[in-house]
Specification:
The chain is of the alpha/beta class and 755 residues long. 44% of the residues lie in helices and 16% in strands. Helix 18 packs across helix 19 and helix 23 packs across helix 25. Its EC number is 2.7.3.9.
């Protein structure tokens, strides 16, 4: 392809000057189309802008009837202009009226023009409008002229993106870039967040479009691509990246994109046509993204994310942009948008300013979601494409209860959600009023309400929620947010700090539950086909006794002079408990030998999550000081239904008879062995399922801090024995199809129990 002629170069330079002049928006647009028409030797140049209602409106023209400006309209997909907008691809025709999509607009007076060239006005892959030139004579526009038009469209895209055209938009209408969007996604943590968008990886804004020396810009591009390729090769060669598995194929595809000569050639052509290196990257990125966004193949759409990320890395190389959201200012009501992010990255943000988190990827069990839950902020996951639709500072509402993102919401929706937030706040005030009320049921049964925790940010909620203590402290979170294995002294200081801030309340530490879906970057492990059933938790710890003994020693030293409660996760056989007890005894002897203080009382427990323990119940109950049921894992393992798999996660009811019978058998085994029993898991934190737990005999439950108020409000009005009689009758009846869930709802309604 040949270089741009002097004419198009002059055009770009003149457009840049026009953008800098203090002009009113309409005058600026009018001059732009006039300049393009003159430079392209076109008799017509028109700009159509996409509105929020999907209509392309004529905003400026040179050559068509001036009275048609702001009156001539085409729907997306309608006519030649609508076809370009819908496909995000140029249309170059020698006889436009012969094209089947041609639509005649009599108010424009364009019937005398035959040749037609239209290009989409793109930004970040989104179509913002269409730029058109026309001539009376039949001709095909040259390839370099198409390139010139696409480059010119980038200038107009920035004009639209800055909001300058709002002044000349008809009253009551909005441009597509600012339209309200509602996305249905997955709610990963309940709650409502109102605030403003903060892009975790801020978009690089290219302001310098026109180059002065094409050869120099190509050299800059080559250097940046070389650095990018080296960084990817380095990433693939690291030891922590396993040599086999699906993830390896993804990374190899990533490297293939970086070495794609077609991609490089298109960027070089854009530079020869007058753009700077960074503007060339942005142009090719936007063109490619616009095409790929319209693909239906999920694999190819996923590859779009890889390409987009690669282009963003290259832009940062060229511009020196840090890519940190914190460098761009941080609003007091921030809702962070990210494709994906690490747990430690979320903790870098000021907690007081965070109102929510929105992820394109991730799962309900991912590290960052676990940490976000601990921080008590609403989380939305699997919000496909949301990052490309948002801009820093956009107003947004996220609804973790319904799994929705409302981007740039309309005023009436904002008012509705503000009222909803006020209602929730009033309910929270009511729950706070119950903080110091003893959790005793209507028929006099004292229930122990504990909270789950795992980070220092959780601990203030112990006093705020009125919890009796911490029933589950996830020690693995300290490991998951660290960049390297925490040393003995770091672990000890952390556990001592937890106990100090707990201020005399009981804390039950769960030993490391890493492995499976809880991958720690600095801990080498092999790819597993079914990690949830693989090398994780106590299995991993027993195979790495040095890791376990370091943690046990840190817990013992941190608890010197006080009580230590610790429990083991993912126990499958009672022999595993005995093996850990032996290691614990060795650590006690070691600390005693060297004069270290020891806990005044040690309680040793186990989590019941693996169904195999159901046939070792009495043996288990006599082996430990207490048992904690992990209802999340026990349910998914009992039902053989992966809770992270949307196709089966809701297939079976946690309040169905089979699972409640399992839980009731555990309660009866604990009662006959006089072993303290607690249940930790999501069902403990929901008033309806908590009702069932109390009815089958649980007297201690552990949940998220925000759930304690609603559960306490429920139990204060509950006659446990009355419900137990009805529920046990249904569980014992093997022929009845009565729904336990319906029974509970009806009971709560009849007895005015708040849910």
């Amino acid at each position: 392809m040949r270089d741009l002629s002097a004419g198009p170069r002059v055009l770009l330079k003149r457009l840049r000057e026009l953008m800098a002049e203090p002009l009113e928006p309409q005058e600026r647009l009018d001059r732009i189309v006039r300049q393009i028409a003159s430079n392209m030797v076109a008799e017509v140049c028109s700009v159509y802008v996409l509105r929020s209602d999907g209509v392309l409106e004529l905003y400026a023209t040179e050559g068509l009837n001036k009275d048609a400006v702001h009156l001539a309209q085409l729907k997306m997909g309608q006519g030649l202009v609508g076809t370009i907008a819908a496909s995000a691809q140029p249309l170059n025709l020698s006889d436009a009226q012969a094209h089947p999509a041609f639509r005649y607009l009599p108010e424009t007076g364009e019937e005398i023009y035959h040749s037609f060239l239209g290009v989409p006005i793109l930004r970040a892959g989104r179509t913002l409008g269409v730029l058109v030139v026309q001539n009376k004579a039949q001709r095909n526009y040259r390839e370099d002229e198409v390139e010139a038009m696409e480059t010119t469209a980038m200038v107009i895209a920035e004009m639209i993106a800055t909001g300058e055209l709002k002044k000349i938009t008809q009253p009551g209408l909005e441009l597509d870039l600012t339209r309200a969007i509602t996305l249905d996604a997955d709610g990963y943590n309940e709650g409502i967040g109102l605030g403003h968008v903060v892009l975790h990886e801020p978009r690089v804004v290219v302001t310098n479009l026109l180059n002065e020396d094409a050869d120099k810009e190509i050299e800059r591009l080559a250097e940046a691509i070389g650095s990018l390729r080296l960084s990817i090769d380095d990433m693939l060669s690291r030891r922590e990246v396993a040599q086999e598995g699906e993830h390896r194929e993804v990374l190899e595809t990533y490297r293939m994109f970086a070495h794609d000569q077609g991609w490089v050639r298109r960027m070089e052509e854009a530079i020869r046509n007058g753009l700077t290196a960074e503007a060339a990257v942005e142009k090719v990125q936007s063109d490619t993204k616009a095409r790929m966004m319209r693909l239906t193949d999920p694999y190819l759409r996923e590859r779009m994310h890889d390409f987009d990320d690669l282009a963003n890395r290259l832009l940062r190389q060229l511009t020196g942009f840090s890519g940190r959201a914190m460098d761009q200012g941080f609003p007091i009501d921030a809702i962070v948008f990210a494709r994906a992010m690490g747990a430690a990255e979320l903790l870098d943000y000021p907690r007081a300013n965070l109102r929510g988190l929105v992820l394109e990827d991730g799962a309900v069990t991912s590290h960052v979601v676990i940490v976000a839950r601990a921080m008590g902020i609403p989380v939305i996951g699997q919000a496909a494409g949301v990052v490309a639709l948002a801009e820093n500072g956009d107003s947004v509402i996220i609804d973790g209860d319904e799994g929705q993102v409302h981007l740039r919401p309309m005023a009436d929706l904002v008012k509705a959600y503000e009222e909803k937030v006020r209602l929730r706040a009033r309910r929270q005030e009511q729950f706070r009023a119950l903080r110091d009320v003893d959790p005793v049921t209507r028929d006099g049964k004292r229930i122990t309400l504990l909270m789950n925790a795992g980070l220092m940010v959780d601990l203030p909620q112990l006093a705020e929620s009125g919890a009796d203590g911490i029933g589950l402290f996830r020690t693995e979170l300290q490991f998951m947010i660290a960049s390297q294995m925490p040393k003995l002294e770091e672990q000890e200081a952390f556990y001592r700090n937890v106990l100090r801030q707990a201020a005399g309340h009981s804390v039950t530490f769960r030993t490391l539950d890493i492995g499976g879906d809880k991958v720690v970057s600095y801990f080498r492990s092999q790819e597993e086909e079914n990690p949830a059933l693989g090398w994780r938790a106590i299995r991993l710890s027993l195979d790495r006794p040095g890791l376990l003994r370091t943690q046990l020693r840190a817990l013992l030293r941190a608890s010197a002079g006080s009580e230590l409660k610790m429990m083991l996760p993912m126990v499958t056989e009672v022999s595993e408990i005995r093996a850990v007890r032996d290691l614990m005894q060795k650590e006690v002897q070691h600390l005693s030998k060297f004069g270290h203080g020891l806990p005044r009382k040690l309680q040793f427990g186990a989590m019941l999550e693996v169904p195999a323990l159901m046939w070792q119940l009495d043996e288990l109950m006599t082996e430990v000081d207490f048992v904690s049921v992990g209802s999340n894992d026990l349910f998914q393992f009992s039902m053989a239904a992966d809770r992270g798999n949307a196709r089966v996660s809701d297939r079976f009811d946690i309040l169905g008879k089979p699972f409640l019978r399992i839980l009731r058998d555990i309660v009866r085994a604990a009662d006959r062995n006089k072993t303290p029993l607690t249940l930790c898991g999501e069902m403990a934190g929901k008033p309806l399922s908590a009702m069932a737990l109390l009815a089958i005999g649980f007297r201690s439950v552990s949940m998220t801090p925000t759930s304690i108020g609603p559960v306490k409000a429920m139990l204060l009005g509950l006659d446990v024995d009355l419900l137990a009689g009805e529920l046990n009758q249904v569980l014992d009846d093997t022929r009845s199809d009565v729904s336990v869930r319906e029974l509970l709802v009806n009971f709560a309604t009849t007895h005015n129990i708040p849910l």
